[in-house]
Amino acid sequence: MPVAIITGASKGLGRALAAGLAGRGWDLVVDARSAGPLEAAARELHETGVRVVALPGDVTDGGHRAALVAAAAELGGLDLLVNNASVLGAEPLVRLADHPLDGLRAALEVNVVAPLGLVQEALPLLRASSYLASYGGDIPYVGEIPYIRGADNAGAYDSHPYLSDVRNAGMYDSPPYVGTGGAILNISSDAAVEAYPTWGGYGAAKAALDQQSAVLAVEEPGLRVWWVDPGDMRTDLYAAAVPDDDDSGRPLPETVVPALLRLLDEAAVSGRYAAADLLAGAADPGGSR
Questions:
Q1: What is the dihedral angle through the alpha carbons of 172, 173, 176, 179, rounded to the nearest 10 degrees?
Q2: pTM of the predicted protein model
Q3: Could you tell me the domains of the chain?
Q4: Is Oxidoreductase found in the keyword set (predicted)?
Q5: DSSP structural state of residue 183
Q6: Which residues lie below 8 Å from residue 153, measured CB to CB, with a gap of 6+?
Q7: pLDDT in tens, 136-157
């Protein structure tokens, strides 16, 4: 069975995605800061018949990140890493003139530093994954033919390209190479690319995550790296950000899960995606800038 690590999985989008993957037979390693809600989520996931390891802890703790990856290794490997855990930096959100600097540091630590630390810890397992290659070529990539040529110089997909092709991947003058390892899904926000009043601290942290993801995609061409704007959702995070706003009309996190699963189903190329575009049928990266 494929294995995923999902941070921030006790509620919201993390919990909804965990349920979606469990319904497909994925084994899971899930984390959250609060043990009680995480254990409740894990009990529900267990009912689907998959293996679930629930590890409460803080993603800013290197020892906790190592434990998450070790648990995945015990389950057989790692095919998908989901960096979903997040903090706002100020609750409720405030203008930059009033933003506490310690809060900004916390937002950067959770939204940028911790995801990179977890990626670094997980890279050996992700590089060894063959999950996305297991589609057998039916839908191995989305978009252009990978950087591989046949004897007639016509493009043809090959899940095991020559090393020179891999080294050239991501260069400015080469078509995008699509590898066959695992995938990294970083949950971003439209606040990373739009200038919303009071969202400056959180948006800056997510913008940094976007750029970090883009560079990682170039440096690790054998992996898929997706950074996704899930759109507006009815979550505790949004309620804490803007407590006076009526979010009753906002969609539930469960409605976003099909968009994220589509990235897996189509083994989509690395890039920035908007859940709204994926749900509408578009699967090209960059749909939300």
A1: -90
A2: 0.83
A3: 3-143+178-280 (3.40.50.720)
A4: yes
A5: E
A6: none
A7: 333 333 333 232 223 333 333 2
